Amino acid sequence: MIVNCARYDQGCRREGDLSLAQAAEAARETGSFVWVGIAEPSAEEFDALAEQFDLHELAVEDALHAHQLPKVEMYGETMLVVVKTAQYVDSDEVIELGELVIFVHATFIIVVRHGDGPLTAVRERMERRTDLLAHGPGAVLYAILDHVVDDYELAAQGVDVDIQQVESDVFSPEVTNPAQRIYKLEREVLAFYAAVAPLAEAVSGLARGHYELIPDPLQEYFRDVHDHLRRASGRVNAFRELLTSALQANLTQVSVRQNEDMRKISAWVAILAVPTMIAGIYGMNFDHMPELHERYGYPVVLLVILVACLLLYRRFKRSGWL
Predict the structure, then answer these.
(1) Nearest 5 degrees, angle CA 242-CA 248-CA 250?
(2) Alpha carbon separation from 120 to 4, 39, 123 (Å, rounded)
(3) 127 confidence band (pLDDT: 50, 70, 90)
(4) What is the mean pLDDT of the chain?
(5) Which residues contact 100 (CB under 8 A, 6 or more apart)?
(6) Distance between CA 101 and CA 109 in Å, rounded?
(7) What are 133-188's pLDDT values in tens digits?
(8) Helices marked H in the chain — which ranges?
């Protein structure tokens, strides 16, 4: 579905949305470029788009099937940029990943969106920055990447809060076992890292001026995006290490608690063994046994059992087993 299709002259948007045929015609005029936004296109829609803008068949295949790694590739005079979007859903503690497939040419930019991640705010912001839009499609690419990387940082903040909660649970005096939550967060962080890390290398080439489609005045803007992206990548990588450490600490805590429980059980078994042994002896049906017919034999035996149990309890208590 075509979300927006407009023509820009010298950084200013012309009134009215265009059809694909009109956009392709406008892209051929000097000093103009068109910005086309498409969400979840069907094969028929994309075939029409590829025909109007003469897109390479391999690039079209990537855009249709999605699930590509972040990358920057050139197909003739058209640049293909694949970017993963990220939104953190705190209630479910999951990172929802989408995908943007961007075709950049000197006279047009086509943004194909899969999943969540609307770019309406990016378009509105850039239309107020006519000085940047005057540099052409490269400026739009910068604005999209800047927006995506800002979302990375917001998602990282959400993950950071949950990791702090996990660490508190691991070292809490209460008996908890957040292993399932740690595994779930680690899985989300791994997917997040797979989206962020490859993009840093791809944006590095844009920041260093390896592509003619990026004018020199825009390179400092891409360097800024690259710096933010490297920081986000390092932060996500640190999350992986924190979660691994938290999982190991949790397993250690569980092992310690199990050992403590076993010591308590063993101590109580040892204490209960005394009355069990004495009662077992006097439960044997012999006529001639010590204290069997004495008047105070029964209370004496009970006293011996009580004293022995108290001495054992005191010993285990002092040694930390109880």
Answers:
(1) 100
(2) 9, 12, 5
(3) confident
(4) 82
(5) 81, 82, 83, 84, 85, 111, 112, 113, 114, 117, 119, 144, 148
(6) 10
(7) 888 899 999 999 999 999 999 999 998 988 888 888 877 777 677 888 888 888 88
(8) 20-27, 43-53, 57-65, 120-128, 130-133, 137-170, 179-207, 216-282, 297-319
| Cross-sheet strand order for the sheet of 71-75 | 12-13, 2-9, 32-39, 108-114, 94-104, 78-89, 71-75
Q: CA 50, CA 101: separation in Å to the nearest integer? A: 13
- How far apart are the C-alpha atoms of 69 and 60, rounded to whole Å? 15
CATH 1.20.58.340 positions along the chain are 256-319
Q: Within its chain, how far is the Cα of 183 from the centroid?
A: 12
CATH class of the region 2-253: alpha beta
- Over residues 287-315, the mean pLDDT reads 75
pLDDT of residue 141: 93
Place of tokens 């990358």: 71
Is CATH 1.10.730.10 what the domain over 256-319 is classified as, yes or no? no
The enclosing H or E element of 86 equals strand 78-89
Both tokens of 318, joined, read 């002092």
In whole angstroms, give the CA distance from residue 142 to residue 207: 10
CATH 3.30.460.20 domain range(s) in the chain: 2-253
Q: Side chain identity at 213, as an amino acid letter?
A: L
Question: C-alpha angle 235/236/238, rounded to 5°?
Answer: 65
Question: Exposed e or buried b for every residue in 117-144, given b needs 16+ CB within 10 A?
Answer: bebeebbeebeeeeebbbbbbbbbbbbb
Rounded to the nearest 10 degrees, the angle between the axes of helix 216-282 and helix 297-319 is 160
